[in-house]
Amino acid sequence: xxxxxxxxxxxxxxxxxxxxxxxxxxxxxxxxxxxxxxxxxxxxxxxxxxxxxxxxxxxxxxxxxxxxxxxxxxxxxxxxxxxxxxxxxxxxxxxxxxxxxxxxxxxxxxxxxxxxxxxxxxxxxxxxxxxxxxxxxxxxxxxxxxxxxxxxxxxxxxxxxxxxxxxxxxxxxxxxxxxxxxxxxxxxxxxxxxxxxxxxxxxxxxxxxxxxxxxxxxxxxxxxxxxxxxxxxx
Length: 234
Fold this sequence. Notes:
Helix content is 61%, strand content 0%. It is an all-alpha fold. Helix 6 (137-154) packs antiparallel against helix 7 (157-184). The longest helix is centred in the last third of the chain and has 28 residues, at 157-184. It is globular.
């Protein structure tokens, strides 16, 4: 596996760690707040909380993604890999070593038969192929066991479904749509060395949609740039 070194970060720069821990704390805080409550669904607040939790789930994966490139905690391998592992695991028990291996294959073989993230079909066939690349049996079992423990022993079933399950599914769709499908869908960009396209420059929307990963050509051109500096490459 080839790990691209960070280009704009000094060794032991911990800004990525602080941001990842902040996302983790907010994610956990939202769950602790939402799961035990009785909700009134005629108000806007629970729907807003689901949207926030979805964005935080996406942030967990993006933090794990930065770890795959060695930019979450540059110069501190144990912290970089450990925090990346935890962030991936908290998003539906994704297995960090599998994600890391396949993600570097994606960078080396983007939009080719050797690219695990690429499919020639439309959105839903491509999403199905994408899920088959990454979802494992043990992961499904872990989600099922955790789901049963949460609602049988601790929290109302409705809350577990809407604040733990639903945001993770929506975040997966968000990551796939903005981070894989839109940048790499056909028709391809023939004169583009990285076979990637980027959304129009709009930093607020780029952050809200997928932590700046709509700037996807920039990510492939500068894979050593963490998500929170990616906007500077646009």
